[in-house]
């Protein structure tokens, strides 16, 4: 599948949300916005994680939507200045975000695992292996999560199996 072929397209709303989802929504509001009765999977813990069909994973902080993760292969596509962020070559996506930040004066942040984030947009670029190929998998969060050391270390990581003790890994 190409970066955009057969995918829904969601609009990035910096600081507010993504597609039909808005930060601060309750789990019931998220399910309603995604037009489902409940998630396919729910993992409890300090930050509840819910997985939905169509490659959408969400995390809640104190029962309110705080993080949206899109699957690199099946998740909706999100464009930023004409560039598809989901399912791209991670190096190309990384270079695009660096160029975007330089052109627009966006604030850059590197996480401990060398993921790149544009804090003013709430976009964190991670990667995911799909069929032996690494592809870009953006994570969208409330700005305060990217700026907080506490949360930065708990953002969804790639490549490690999910456990009940650590719902931040996928």
Folded structure, characterized:
By secondary structure, the chain is α+β, with helices and mostly antiparallel strands. The chain has 4 helices and 14 strands. Strand 13 (123-130) and strand 14 (133-141) form a beta hairpin. The longest helix is centred in the middle third of the chain and has 15 residues, at 90-104. Mean pLDDT is 83; it is low at 157-170.
Gist of the model:
With 170 residues, the chain is an alpha+beta fold. Helices cover 18% and strands 34% of the residues.
Q: Strand order, biggest sheet?
A: 5-6-7-8-14-13-12-11
Low-confidence stretches are 157-170
Give the distance, in angstroms, between the N- and C-terminal Cα atoms.
22 Å
> In which range does the helix fraction lie?
10-25%
Question: Count the strands?
Answer: 14
Number of helices: 4
| Cα Rg | 15 Å
Broad structural category: alpha+beta
- The helix/strand order is EEEEHEEEEEEHEEEEHH
List keywords for this structure.
single chain, 170 residues, alpha+beta, 14 strands
Detail the topology: elements first, then pairings:
Blueprint: E1 9-10, E2 12-13, E3 17-18, E4 21-22, H1 27-33, E5 41-43, E6 49-52, E7 56-61, E8 64-70, E9 77-80, E10 83-84, H2 90-104, E11 108-110, E12 116-118, E13 123-130, E14 133-141, H3 143-147, H4 149-152
Parallel strand pairs: 1-9
Antiparallel strand pairs: 2-3, 3-4, 5-6, 6-7, 7-8, 8-14, 9-10, 11-12, 12-13, 13-14
